Task: structure prediction
Amino acid sequence: MIKVRGLKKVYPSAVALRGVDMDIQDNEWLSIMGPSGSGKSTLLNILGGLDYPTEGSVSYDGKEITTMKEDELAVFRRENIGFIFQQSYLIPYLTALENVMLAQYFHSIVDEKEAAEALKRVGLSHRLHHRPSELSGGEQQRVCIARALINSPKVLLADEPTGNLDRENTRVILELLGELHSNEGFTIVLVTHDPYVAGWGKRLLTMEDGRIIKDESFHS
Amino acid sequence: MRGPLKIDKVIKLRRLMVWAWLIYYLTWSTWSKEAFAGFVSGLGRNIIWQVLFVAFIMLLGIEMIYKFRQRIKKAPFFAFLWFILPAGMIVFLTGFFLSASMRMDTRILTGKEDIFQIPWSQKRFGVMDVKPSIKERFLDIEQESPSPVFTREPVVLLTDFKDTYRVGVFPPQRIDGTFFHILNFNIAPSIEIRDSSGRVVMKGDLALQILPAGNIDYVILEGLPYRITMKLLPSREIKRGDITAKEYDLNDRFYEIKVFRVKNPQEAGTLITEGDSRYPLKFDGYSLNVTGHTYWVLLEVVRDKGVYVIGAGLILVILGILVRFILLPWWLREIRRLTRD
Amino acid sequence: MSLFIPEAFIGSIKGTIAISASWLVINSYLSSKNKETGPVHLFILILWFMLLFIAGTFIEFDAFYKDQIRRVSAYMFGLLLITAIFSSGWSLKREFRLFYIFLIMLLYGPDVMSLSFFLKDLSAMRQNFTGAYIAGITGFLSGLSLLFFEKKIRSGLSPYLSLTGLFFSLSAIKLLLGGTGGYAELSLIPAVQRGLMKFFHDLVHQLFVFFMVPDHPLLKTTVWNFIGLIFGEAFTMIATLCILVIPPLVIVLRLLKRPEEVPEGLKGAERRKYIHEFMLLNRKRAFPIFLFALMVSFFWFFKAESGPGLYIPQPVPVVEEEGFVIIKLKEPGRELGDGNIHKFILRKDEKTYRFFIFKRPDGKFSVCLDACEICPPEGYGQARQHLICIYCNTPIPFNTVGEPGGCNPIPVGYIMTEKEIKIEVEEILKKWRLVHSGVSRE
Result:
């Protein structure tokens, strides 16, 4: 379980978070919505250990991450958290397979068979040896999902994962995420401004001006 | 109910013995006499050593078979390939034991037209010819190692009065399961000693170690109180600066001879005359002539069944090393590669 | 008179650093098993070495025992090395702290005693007791200061030490810092080399006997060229390197491999993480072993560059007096009993006869011809533990010098009085006849 208490983040020019409290249960799919500048990406970055808060605490199963040192945090991130962003951030001169294997390499050791298997699960078994430039936007994002999940993270943090995709591709990606989520049982925290995308989650937080203003749960 | 043989315990005992042997060897080679030679001769004579060694081979064998049985369940073919090396080691050690404990050998000094007998089989052999293969002319240069005097290995032609055999230095010649080879070889000058009345009192060939050139060797005359030393003399000496080269021409060979009077064979004696072999040497009323030369040969004769086992063991060990460390790893790599593809 | 003799300081700090370093390495190893030794153990250790030091200082040992004690040191190194190689297959269920304490006691006992002999000799030689012992004690205390860093070193070292790594590290420390009297005694390695070489030589020799290959060049043949190759310096040097370096390298290579089995149930990232951590740990553990192999190679190269390092003295001419050669035990500039070979040359009837006198470590004098029955009479040189036949490189252990047969120098009978050794000239001439005749033809 992730516990967030009194989270504040103050930048020199602005205040991004003004005291956020929330709990995220294991295996939950949580969507966070809000207008631009409402602090949702900042919250996601702090949740993922990519940034430190000015005040407050974030703990994973009782383990506080805001007090961890840089190198401890790096180890924690690589073993527990997967990221997907709006941009794919794939290495352009590596193939899809190699991009996934790179994530394996930073985690521990590479295993080509396992990487190929992961790409097969996201429906890219025919695209293993293609470079990102040879893949469509949806395919690139699927590589990103394979890369984010290759090290079996407990939590997947997604920041506008479908922001660059058309409706059809968005649906495909979300279906895929849904399938993997129910099969592998990781937690998803997805930030979006698209109500259609947010609707795929079981719970929706709405943010405004650095605060959570609404917390709704859906039961399907 | 009694359980099956506790094979683990036996293996532990084997390890213990390897340790005991290592410690024994280190101790004795560091502190005492020739460790290995002592070990081999002990194996030949001492019953306790023999029992220990046989026990060691057996324990080694048991462990190997135990491991082999484990492997054969997983992959029979590879288990056989794996087994070559341990089997070779066991065969080698067994051969070692057989050879050390049962080997018979003797050395026989002989020359052309001699007949000799092998002590254990009573079989007789005649020496038909000795082919010396000595260079006819050679240079001996000071401050260098002795110049090679043989053009190739000397050879002896032996007969068992049915067939003839060529016996060289290496490899040994096998005749009826017995090995022969030349262990030593040299010139035997023929001498003749006459008394003042011209009667021949002694005649024979002297088995001397006078090659490489410059060696001095001696013989004590039987029945006469003299020691005779001989040395091959160069036919020519060439001097260049500090270095002298001596040229020897065996077609025109002659020797330096010294005669010492001795009271008993142990003492050096007093020099009474010296000269070279081209002229008769006179002393105490005797006259010594060098009438020619022949060659003497020291043959080593060995009967050793163990050597076949050692040879087989050695071949297996070499084969086993090749299989175990080159063929098998390559093979397994290939299999892994193929199954991955 | 100087109050500080640097040699004493170096000898003593070297020994103390070796002991402290061994203690630290052992403690680092044990700490990963939660079995650290305590101050009581350290006290036992220091007490033991103090006792040995005092014994070495106040008890008069004669040369024989002194030499034996030095040899124990080299012997322990050999034993440690073999243990290290064999230990790669061991897994200890229980660790006994006292075993390791005992190991240090054994490993450095002879060194500490040698150190006390060394300080005693030094103070006698320089006639400066205070200087030698002040420097010695300063060295001792400086070496001990290493122990202050124990905690830091322990936590840094412990991931690098497996049982095998521990033994190899101890071997490395012993190799680098063992022995006394300056750094010249890096030569623990040649002592082991000789032992191994001897074994190798004996084994090949025995195979030659089995297969009836003539061992020595009684005849010049192509076969001999090959045999000569095997017994040559270059071959034995390379063989020695292989024997010393291949086992640790094989262990290193094994440690660098992936694990053969992964615990069941581990899949995907967890499996990879297990393999990664396994390999990371083993890579760390391989490091000290690799370092040892590197160190041995370095010393080997050093030794190979500097040649065999034989001591071959010039023979001193002697003359015959009424049928005897008489050599005084002590003369200005020469002492026959100093443990070195002393060569002499006798000219008689235009021929020269070389022989030598050697006092063996067991105290017995040996008079031998500088030649054996087998090789051309090139003579012998002296190495640390052996006389070496210059022609065929066969090592002769010191205590067998004076025994007849084989590759041993031909012994000559002598008469010993209080002040001199008398050798009958006839005896020398008689024995010289055995030289390089290959066999006895009586």
